[in-house]
């Protein structure tokens, strides 16, 4: 079974047992999270598309970890002006394990 779900402004293609990293969700490790924004479900070769969401479909996942991504460097420079700024950013993410896809 396969589903396309939406969270954090992005779409993810998931199936049961998959691990995905999404934008930070304020939940504790081990907690269950439900995503009702399911755009498509495929099971046994049959595809069910939503307009825009599939009615009654829910993707259930459990929180595996809360961490931060690798550092993205931001470097600004103006030539001949002695202006240089180096900065870094680490985006907080949540690692999820997809438990169940219900339709």
Q: What does it look like?
A:
It is a single chain. It is built from no helices and ten strands. The strands form three sheets. A four-stranded antiparallel β-sheet has the order 2-1-5-6, with no helix packed on it. It has a four-stranded antiparallel β-sheet with strand order 3-10-7-4, with no helix packed on it. It is an all-beta fold and about 100 residues long. It has strands at about 1-5, 10-15, 20-25, 30-35, 40-45, 45-50, 60-70, 70-80, 85-90, 90-100. Strand 5 (about 40-45) and strand 6 form a beta hairpin. Helix content is about 0%, strand content about 65%.
Briefly summarize what is shown.
With 103 residues, the protein is mainly β.
| Gyration radius over CA | 19 Å
Instruction: Enumerate the strands of the largest sheet in spatial order, edge to edge or round the barrel.
Output: 2-1-5-6
Secondary structural class:
mainly beta
Number of helices: 0
The percent range for strand residues is over 45%
Major sheet size, sense and barrel closure: 4 strands, antiparallel
Unreliable runs: none
Say how many strands there are: 10
Mean pLDDT: 96
**How do the helices and strands follow one another from N- to C-terminus?**
EEEEEEEEEE
Distance between the termini: 10 Å
Determine the fraction of residues in helical runs and give it as a percent range: under 10%
- Overall shape: it is elongated
